[in-house]
Predict the structure.
Amino acid sequence: MDPSSFVYFATPERSGETKEMAKTVVDVMKGLAEIALKKYGGEPEHHPIYAKILSMGGEKSENEEEAKHCDEIFAEYLKEVAKVTNPEYFANVVKFIVLYRECLNQYGWIKLEAAKPKPKQEKEKEKEKEKEKEKEEEKKEEAKDKEPDKDKVKTEEVPPKKEEEKKKPDYCTANNCEFVPEMANELVLFFLPEHSCGLPTTECTNLVVNFCEWLLANAYTCTKVSLVKK
């Protein structure tokens, strides 16, 4: 069955309704405590997705989709899926979304940085810095050859971490879902094999397609998902 729409959930093993959505989310997160709740003191109630589920409601304002971060969009997707799936299957979808979130937090900033186009001036500056660094290294080597004291201790400077790297929040709390489909391969090929969500690989892949097509249909991304086969 084509997983690109919610018709995918209209099968006997998937269809139904999950009325106690918040309770199911809490139960699932407790089962994923090691990976999902470390930052939140082991409490599912402190997880951003759960908080967003509780706060959802009301009419959408103009350009609201553009302002939403990943966590709020994840919660919205889960709310819609809960309306058409039974509690057992919905629990698996929650696992999938929670693990997708953790995958985004791991790879998201790297992908986002790589996707940024570098201005011509910036590239030229980088080349100049590389040349200057090479000249400095050459001078140091020449100075070492002339140094009479052979017993001097050699030390290497460790470059300090950039401030922005230290202060970056979780990717999903600071960014929208524009680049989410571009990280689908990291999820399927690397992340899920290490952190199983209790579903076969084929089912996980179908959920990736379903979620990413839903993002596209709701204008949360302009990117169509493209998965690499093993």
